[in-house]
Amino acid sequence: MVQAYILVQTEVGMAQDVSSAVAKIDGVVRVDMVTGPYDVVVLTEAATVDQLGAFVVSRVQRVQGITRTLTCSILEL
Hints:
The protein is α+β, with helices and mostly antiparallel strands. The chain has 2 helices and 4 strands.
């Protein structure tokens, strides 16, 4: 299992709508609205790195109101 945090920037005033929409996507473990340069942080999981990448591009980035994402994979050392 591969997990990652997706840091999300949204259009002004869209953080709550984006959070609600993203929380409904299968593979999303947790969604938090935050302060700082990003508006929403999403914890996700997938079976493989390739599936995680496809998930971000085909599911998360298509949510209306998202302007930019940054995916940070969780390492198990």
